[in-house]
Amino acid sequence: MRFRQTVLAVPFLALPFTAALAEYCTDQPNLALINGNIYTMDDADSRVSSVFIREGVFVALNDDDYSEQDCTEVIDLQGRTVIPGLIDNHVHFVRIQNRPGHDTREIESTFSVADVLAVIAEKTQSVTDGDLITAIGGFRQWQWAEGRFPTITELDSVAPNNPVYLSEHGFGPGQVNSAGRDLLRSLGVKIGNDGSVAAREDTALAYEMLAAELNDEHRKRQLEDLIAWANKIGLTAAMDMSGTVPGVGFLDQTVGYEPIVSLDRNNELNLRTRLYLPALDEDAELGQLQGRLDNTFHNFGSDMLKVVGVGEWSVGRSLFNSQPLGNAAVDAQWRMAERGWTYHQHLHSPAEIDAHLDVWESIDPTYDLSELRWTAGHMSGATPELIDRVIDLGLGIGAHGQPYSQRGNGGPPWRTIVESDVVAKAAGSDGARISPFNPWSIIYYMVTGKNSAGEEVNLDQTVSRYDAIKLYSSADQGWFTKEEGKLGGIDIGRYADVVVLSADVFDETAVPDEQLRQMTSSLTIVGGKVVYSDGSLTTP
Question: Is the overall model pTM greater than 0.85, yes or no?
Fold first, then answer.
């Protein structure tokens, strides 16, 4: 018998398997998680106490007799709350590789100037003196108690040896410290003596100049850092909607995916990623789209990285925003259906939803859009009547929380969607330019109806914590990528993506509403492999 009980007392990167175990097990050992409070997020809302994982998938539930299993690591969860790995149904995560400096996503989850300064101070401990520290997009000043950026003096106090550049909401206002001011001025950017970057053209220029010399080594490191943080907050999979918006939204479509492909080839990709190819350029001919549809392998790739569809629109922004849709958008969508492609469409208003449904209802009798997994995404302001039309077509709804960062926008009708008969429903962030990448910010928004300014904007459409987390983690997510039997939820045969939470999120006393946005994982597992541990789990 080759059996070992694991002690997780230090961060995962310092946790090689023991030499004794490795001597017998040349492949990935089995993994048993026992004595947990494990929410499967299945249709019956089941809970189990243990799971057994072999070759990256669940092979047994609620079977505690693991002592006879060879090559097995056993982790005693000690009653911890466990959920399936969180899956972002709509996010722009790959393009974050193009952020200059050391991108600091943790700033999304700060709620005071003191919090911001603490995050930056911690970042200085992991970078070299002189390295640029940045946070561009994904947060707003109004989320901080003081309603302002840290001052140049405050930033200098925590990062005296590193230039710092912060910019809210993509090309929103920015702030630098003294070293950042000197750096940006040397690049021709207008910076106030107080470190402020006020004009949109200046924040756009700052990004352009700082990112001008990026290479794939930088991009790969940026992705690795981002994924490590994603795993820490319980994110195990992302449906990536590319990015062709200039500046912070740009991703070169010819070579831009090389860094993440490299991570996958080397078995270093710890965030399961599903790629949706992007829109046409606004001035491009439809032949460009046709070439992509004809010459790209659909639903092709590894379990960790796969091309699954087109999204989040089929033609450039100026074309898809029109109502009714222009000829180019209609033609593009017919071509995608004809070639059998999955499609995920950005829909931000009732008029836009209505215009696209008109087209989809004309296509569906010829090409079964439910079978193709076409998705109505975002869905802010969707009425019950519009949702009924989606149901009639058998389409999925991806409800996304970007209005969390936009005052005055109530967002998707979460409760109506949860209570509907939509064939598949899921949540996502649309991060990390105009919205946070952190799923817990969106879960907070769904549960409280409060935006990032603390304003109550969507109270009649709030849902329970359980329903919010289920939208992020259930087997429904697999519908969107034709992985119904594999992706999302906890059940036999599914990908073994698991999060052991740092606290019981379903206990409102243990985790008050205002602490939801700061939830983290104690242990994150992707494909049966531990990718993050905070060291808190130990054996008796």
Answer: yes
